[in-house]
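Hello again,

I reread your note about wanting to compare the complex against the isolated chains. To keep things tidy I'm splitting this into two emails, and this first one only covers the full assembly. Below are the input lines as submitted, including protein chains and any nucleic acid or small-molecule components. They are followed by the predicted structure of everything together. The single-chain runs will come separately.
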Amino acid sequence: MSSNTHYVAPLEETPLVGVDTVKVSEERSNLWLDAWRDLRGRPLFWISAAVILLVVAVALFPNLFTSVPPNHDCHLADSNAGPAPGHPLGFTKQGCDIYSRIIHGTSTSLAVGFIVIALTTVLGLLFGAFSGFYGGWIDSVLSRVGDIFFSIPYILAAVVIMTVLAEYRSVWSISLAIGIFAWPSTARVLRAEIFRVKNADFVMASTALGLSRFKILLKHVLPNSIAPVIVITTISLAAAIVAEASLSFLGVGLGGDIMSWGNDINQAQSDLRIAPQTLILPSIALSVTVFAFISLGEVARDALDPKARALR
Amino acid sequence: MSQTLTDLDRPLLEIKNLQVGFQTQRGLVPAVNGIDITLMPGQTLAIVGESGSGKSTTAHAIINLLPGSGRITGGEVLFDGQDLAKLTEHQMQDVRGRNIGFVPQDPMSNLNPVWSIGFQVEEAIRANGIASGKDVKKHAIQVLKEAGLADADTRMRQFPHQFSGGMRQRVLIGMGLSSRPRLLIADEPTSALDVTVQRVILDHLETLTRDIGTAVLFITHDLGLAAERAEQLVVMYKGKVVESGPSREILENPQHPYTQRLVAAAPSLASRRIQASGAALGHLQHQETDAGAHVDLIEAAENRAEKQAAPHRHESAIVVDSLTKVFKIRGEKGEGKHFKAVDDVSFSVERGTTMALVGESGSGKSTVAKLLLRLEEATSGRIDIDGANIAPLAGRDLLGLRRKMQPVFQDPYGSLDPLRNIGNTIAEPLLVHKVGDRASRRARVDELLEQVALPSALATRYPNELSGGQRQRVAIARALALKPEIVILDEAVSALDVLVQAQILTLLAELQSELGLTYVFITHDLAVVRVIADQVCVMQKGRIVEAASVDEVFDNPREQYTRDLLDAIPGANLRLGA
Amino acid sequence: MTGYIFRRILQAIPVFLGTTFLIYFMVFAMPGDPLLALFGDRTPNPAVLAQLRAQYHLDQPFIVQYLIYMGGLLRGDFGISFSGEPVTEILARTFPVTIRLAIMALIFETILGIAVGLISGLRKGKLFDASSLVVSLILISLPIFVIAFVAQYVFGVWLGVARTTVSSTAPIPELIMPALVLASVAFAQIVRLTRASVIETTTLDFVRTAYSKGLRTRRVVPVHILRNSLIPVVTYLGTDFGVLLVGATITEGIFNVPGVGNALYQAIIRGEGPTVVSFVTVMVLIYLVVNLLVDLLYGLLDPRIRYVK
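Full-complex prediction:
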C-alpha cells in the first residue's frame, strides 16, 4: 500500500462490536475472590496451610499424638539417650521423652502467638484506624505514641518486663510483654493503607450521601484497608512465637514448669557437643511452625495485592 | 550512520504484517494483529485508536520496548530497509535514541525522580556519542534550550519534581530529539497536560521536527488532534488497521464504520462540526451496521437543544454568591501560607439546565464542586440551593440537602467501593436515607440499572468485572437513587474513551430531559461543553473570567483566556468545509 | 536539606523522652520495692544495693526520680551494674567489639542481600529466583539462636573449621561466623525486599524511557533500576536495626563475643536486673540514633524528600 492511498479494511476482517457492551462473566471477581483463586494454585499455600492445621490440631489435642506424659516418668538413667521403643526421638538431659515434650510444647507457642496477635490487632486497629482516618492532631499524637513504642525493640522491652515480673511468668504475662510493644507495626501498616483509601472517590460519594464519618470508616474504609493488616498479622504471629522461644531461651521467658520449645532449647544448649539432637529436634518443631506462618503471610501478601499479582 | 543518503521515495519505516502478543496464564493474547504502516522520511503519521486498540503496543514494538511478557510474534519492522524485529537487544540499543527518538506519554512518571534533569539529559547525549567530555554539558544545555526551556543552565541542577508537567515534557522532547534521529515516536505526548500547554508543546515539537527533518509517528486517542498534527492517519481498532490515508480525506469522508463512529463521537470535531453545520462535516452519512446504533454527538446535542427549547420554569436551582475558599498550606520553609482556591465566585443555575464550569488544573473548579456538595466549608460567600442557604444546615436538614443533590466523580476506578457488589452500591443511598424496605429497594435498583442501560444481572457483580464506562453508569445510577434534583458531574466523562464518553454524554442528556435534572458539569474539556451545556463559566486561578451561554462563548468569546482555550481544542485549526 | 535535618532531630526529641520514660516506668512504677524485684531471688550485695538506691533516688517522687535519671543519661551516666562497676566503663570496653561485629554483619547482609535480590528480581520466575525464595523463607523462619547453634555445631564441632567461641581480643577472622549468623535473617529480608522493589521499578515508565534514550542495559540496571530500588531497603535497615541489636545480644552470648550484647546477655541469664535495664536503655538510645541517621540518609537518597518538605 502506498502512503497516499486511502485504505479501508474489509468489514469482514474487522467486524465491529457494540460500544462498551456488558459481558456478564462466568466468574465473579473482587479482591477476596481473586486472592482465593490465586492462593488455590500455589503449592506453598497448601504446604503452609497443611502444616498450620497439623500444628493447631497438635496444640488442641496433644493426647491424640502421644500417650507419654511429658514431665513424669523421667529417669536420669535415660539422660540424652537415643530413640527407644515408644520414645521415637529419644530423651532429654533430664531423661524425659523428647517427642512428648515437643507435642505438649506446641500449645504454649501457639497460645502466645495468638494472644499476641489479638493484642497487636486490637491496638493496631485502634491506633492505625483513628490516626489514619481522622488525620490532623489526632494523627500527630497517636503516631508519636506509636513511635515511642516502636523505638523500643519489642524483645528488649519484653526482656525488661519479664525481668521485673520474674515472679509472674506465665503464657499471659509473656504475651502481654511482647504484644504491648509489637503493635506499632500493625498500626503503621493500617495507617498508610487508610491514607491511600480514604481519598478514593467512593469515600467522597458516601459523604455526599450523608453517611456519617464513623460509618464510612467502618463500612468502606476499613474493609478496603484490611488486607495488608492480615498479612502483617500472620507474620507477627510467627514473630511472636520466635519471641517467646527467644525469651525462654534467655531464661526470662516462661517458668521451667511450663512446657515450651524455647525452654527445652535452653536446657539442651550445654550439651550441644554430646547430644545435639536434644537441641535440634525442638528447634525443628519451632522452625517448621514459624516457616508455615511466614510462608502463609508471604503468599497472602502476593495474593492480596493486585499489583503484585499482575507483576508476577 | 553510513547509509544516511537514502532515497526520499523510499519509506523510512515500513511495518509489514506486524503481530504482537502478550503471554498470559491463559496463553498468548494477541494485541496487534497483522498491521501494515508506511512512513516516508520527514512525514508525520498519526495512529489513532481507543485504549486497547494496539496503538501504543505498535509504537513500543517498533523499538522493542514492549512491557512485561509482550513480544513480536510475526511480521517485519523495516527501518531504513533493516528489519528491527530481527535485531538483538544489543543491536537495538544502538538504534534507540540515536536513530529513533521516543517521547513518552506521562511526563510525571517518565523522568527518574532521584536524578537531576541535567544528569538525565547528559547520559542520553553520552550514550549516543553526540558529544564527550566537557562538551556534554554544553550540548545538554543547548538541547534543553531548543526544547524551549528558558534558563536551561540553572535548571540542569534541579530535580524532576521541581518542574511542572509542561516543562518535564519539554525535557523529554529535548532528550528524544537530542541526537537528531530520523524518526521520532511520540506516544500521546501531551494527553496528561492542560490543553493550552498541550498546544504550545505540540507547536514547538512540530517546528523542531520540521527543522531537523525528522519523521514523526504520533500516537493519540484524539482524532481531531491527529488530523490537525499529521498528514497521514492510521485508524486502529482491536489490533487491526481499519482505515488509513491522508488525514483530511479520512476526516471528511470516513469509509469504515468504525472511523465513522469515531468521527461522530469525537467532541473536538463535534464542536467544530456544530460551528460548520451545513458544511461538509456537518452531518455524517452513516453506514448502518448490526453492532448497535451510532452515537452522534451532534445529534445528541440537537436532540438536547430541542428538548431544552421547551418552556422552562425560570427559577434558579443554585445561586452562588461571592464564594471564596482559602486553604492553609505549608510553604516551602514550613511556614503557614494561604492559598485562595476559589476567589469571589458568583453564578446561578436555572432549574433543568446544565451549567458547565470549565478550567484547567488548579483553576478551582473541583473545589467549587466540593463546596456545593458541602464536602468542604466555604471561607466566605453564600450558596443557595432551592432558595435556602446551605451553610447552616446540619443533621436532618443536611441529609435533606444531600438527597436533593448528588455527585458523580471522575475516576471510574475509584468511584465504587471495590468490595461491594453493584446492587448494594446503588442501594446504599436508599439505606442511608431509610427509603423503603428490602423488596422495594431491590426493585428500585433494577429500575435504576435499566435507566442507565445496564442489565439487572449486574446487581450481584463487583466493580472489578466492569469497564470504566460501565462503572460510571453505576455511579450515575447511585447518584439518581434518591431522585435528586441536582447532579454535580465532576469530570465525570474525562477518563473515558471517546465512544464510551459519547454514550455517557447521550445518556446524561436523556436523563436530564426525562427527569428534569439540573446539572453542574465540571470539566477541563471545552469541546465536551458544546454538546452538553447551556451556560458556561470559564474559571482561571480561582476566578470566573467569563460567563455566558454556550453559543456566546464559542462564537463570540470576550476574554483572551477563553479564546486560548477555544484555540487549544484539538482540530480547532482544521479548516473544514468549503 | 538543613531544614529537613533540623525537623527530623526535633521530631526525635519527644520520642527520646517517651522511650526513656517508658523504660523507667516499666521498672520503677511497679508495686513493691523495684530494686528487690530486679534482683529476683538473688540476694543483693548491701553495698551495691545502697549505691543503686542512691543512683535511682527511690526516696523521691516518681517523676523527680525520672528527671534525675534523665539528667544522668544526658551526661552519659548510665549508672552502675550489678557488680558495682559503672556501666560506662563496661561500654567503653565492649563497644568497639560490637561495632566491629555489627559493621561486618551489615556489610554481609546488605551486599549479599542486595546482590541476590537484584538478580532474583531481574530473573523473576527463573530457577535462581525460586531457590532464593525458598532459602530466604527458611532463613527468615529460623530463630537466630537456632542458626547460631547449627553454625556452631556444624562448623565448630563437626567440621572443626571455626572456633565455637571467640577469644577475648575478638579478632576479625574469628568474628566472621558470628557476623554471618547475625546477618542471616536480615540478609533474607533484604533479598525479598530488593527483589520486590526491583520488579516494581523495572515496570516504571522512566526505565522504559531510559532504554528509549539508547542507554545500555549495563547502565540502566545500576543507575535507574538499582538506585531507585535502594530507597525502601535503606528504610528497612533502619527499622530492622532493633532486630539486629537483639540478634547481637543472642549471637554474642552464644559465641561468647566480648561485646555490649554479651554483657546484656550475661546479665539477663544471671538475672542481674539493674544491669539489664541500663543496657537495654543504651541499646534503645543506639536504635534511636541509628534511625535518625537512616532518615537523614533517606533524605540524601530521595531528592523529593530533601527539597519539598
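For quick reference: Residues 88-270 of chain C form a domain with the MetI-like fold fold (CATH 1.10.3720.10).

B.
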